[in-house]
Each structure stands twice: as C-alpha cells, then as structure tokens.
Amino acid sequence: MTFNSDILIHPGLGNSGPQHWQSIWEKRFNFTRIEQQDWETPVCADWAKILNDYVTRHDPANVILVGHSLACATIAYWASEYNISIKGALLVAPSDTEAESYPSGTNGFAPVLLTGLPFRSITVISNNDYYVSPERARLFANSWGSEAVNIGDAGHINVSAGYGEWDAGLELLKKLDKGY
C-alpha cells in the first residue's frame, strides 16, 4: 500500500505508544508524527499552533491529518483558527472534553468546537468508547461535515481495545488519499 499524500499523525493526550496503530502506521509508511511539547497537560492554542507549523511545512493541499482522541478536537480548533484547506483528515475516536469522564489537566479544548471543517474528513466512532458516547461522536461528525463510520464495540480504538495494525483504518485513510 502506498500513499500519494503527506500524512501527518497527531496523537491525543499522552501521545501514542509503540504498539498503537498510529505508531505502527508511522513506522510502516514513514508518516510524520506531530510532536507536541506537552502531552500530559496540553493547551489547545499551543497544540493548534504546532499543528499549523507542521502543516505549513508541506503543500497543505496534499496533507492528510490522522488524529486520535484529543487530536480530533485540536484539528477542529486549528481549522477554525487558521482556516487552511488541506486534502483531508481521518478523525478517530474523538474524545468529549465536556464529559465528566474526561481526564483533567487539559486547557482550552472545551467546549468541543461544532463548526464545519473546510476539508473532507472521516470520523471513526465506537459504540462503547469511554471518552465519548456514540451520540456525541455522531454530533461531532455531523457538525464537522464528516462522514461518520461506526465500527461497533471498539472501545477507544487504541491498544487496550485491541487496535495495533488496524488495516480497516488504513482503508479509510486510503479513501481520503484517493480523494474519496
């Protein structure tokens, strides 16, 4: 499998460890990981600025962002703040920063931004994600103008939920790479 786009991986809170599908994809395809300065107590404006720095190192029209969890909210805020149109975004397991179950320590990510994204996107949701209800995840996807893909009982779509390789996710990324 090859990709024609510049794929930028954006992990969520705590970063993605070596067995996470984002890390596996990064190594397997030589994708670029967006390195935030604070993975544990992030500030949304800081994350959005660093995200913008990475995007503008490439031709934005050829960039696909792959965000997991808190990175989905970051991408929504970044799109609103910087208004740069990219090729697309794969938004996986968006976390609900307004939920009581959401970990403390983040700043500026709530409320979740519910404005349309100026680029194509696919939002992957689970029926039993402990960081977001399926109803809220669908609300996010609809508000962002994303194609919503529900993959069933998949937890937070991370290592603890059994997602390492995740070939089905690669197929969704390939769909964005081809322009749908």
Describe, in short, the structure shown.
This protein has five helices and six strands.
Set out the fold topology.
Layout: E1 6-10, H1 21-29, E2 32-33, H2 44-55, E3 63-68, H3 70-82, E4 88-92, E5 120-125, H4 134-144, E6 147-150, H5 167-177
Parallel strand pairs: 1-2, 1-3, 3-4, 4-5, 5-6
Describe the 3D structure:
- By secondary structure, this protein is α/β, with parallel strands linked by helices.
- It has a single domain, classed as Rossmann fold, CATH 3.40.50.1820.
- The protein has helices at 21-29, 44-55, 70-82, 134-144, 167-177; strands at 6-10, 32-33, 63-68, 88-92, 120-125, 147-150.
- The chain has a 6-stranded parallel β-sheet, sandwiched between helices.
- Strand 3, helix 3 (70-82) and strand 4 (88-92) form a beta-alpha-beta unit.
- Helix 2 packs across helix 3.
- The longest helix is centred in the middle third of the chain and has 13 residues, at 70-82.
- It starts with 5 loop residues before the first strand and ends with a helix.
- The mean pLDDT is 96.
- Pfam families: Ser_hydrolase (PF06821).
Question: Which architecture would the CATH scheme give at its second level?
Answer: 3-Layer(aba) Sandwich
CATH topology: Rossmann fold
The CATH class is Alpha Beta
Helix content class: 25-40%
Q: Terminal Cα separation, in Å?
A: 16 Å
Please, how many helices? Answer: 5
Radius of gyration using CA atoms only:
14 Å
Specify the structural class: alpha/beta
| Low-pLDDT runs | none
Overall pLDDT metric: 96
Strand % is 15-25%
Overall form = globular
Keywords: Hydrolase
InterPro entries: AB_hydrolase_fold, RBBP9/YdeN
Protein name: RBBP9/YdeN family alpha/beta hydrolase
GO molecular function, one term: hydrolase activity
